[in-house]
Amino acid sequence: MGMDFGKLAENKIREAQEQGKFDHLPARGQISFEDESHIPEDMRLAVHMLQSQGLTPDWIAQDKELRQKLDEARVALARAWSWRNRQLGQTLDPTERARIKATWQRARERFEAIVRELNSEIFAFNLRVPSPVVQRRPIRAGEEYRALGITEHEDPSHVTGRLP
């Protein structure tokens, strides 16, 4: 049984895309009709006509919206994690540390609620897109935490040099 390099390449591209490795490329979010490989052949003319009139297919606009919501949620989570670490590194008071940890837990719960909501939207998005090639993988909170360097039981005292 041979390896399907096409699927391997698609998976690698999708993973890089979800990790934001293409976020800072020129013309991000714009369709290039010089390479229409991501558009099913029977849809290319229609998409090109829409684009030439300044219109974007709904599924492309929805994909941009999903990516923006995920980016905003990631920024909020990273900000909350950074705040948590700074605050825990500045206090030894058990009551204050418990308050900080509770605030962090609420931030995690908000992030996970957003992930659940986005996954529902991704499911609906995947039903609407014209090709499986442009479908999105569900977001996994654990992968997002690891990508941001957040561990479940991490204590920032080793980062700040202070003892709890």
Description:
The chain has 164 residues and is an all-alpha fold. It has six helices and no strands. It has helices at 5-18, 44-52, 58-89, 94-128, 141-147, 157-160. The N and C termini lie far apart (55 Å). The model is unreliable at 155-164 (pLDDT under 50).
Task: Kindly summarize this structure in a few lines.
The protein has helices at residues 5-18, 44-52, 58-89, 94-128, 141-147, 157-160. The termini are far apart. The protein has 164 residues and is mainly alpha-helical.
Topology:
Elements: H1 5-18, H2 44-52, H3 58-89, H4 94-128, H5 141-147, H6 157-160
Report the strand count.
0
Task: Tell me about the largest β-sheet.
Answer: none
pLDDT under 50 segments (min length 5)?
A: 155-164
Order of helices and strands: HHHHHH
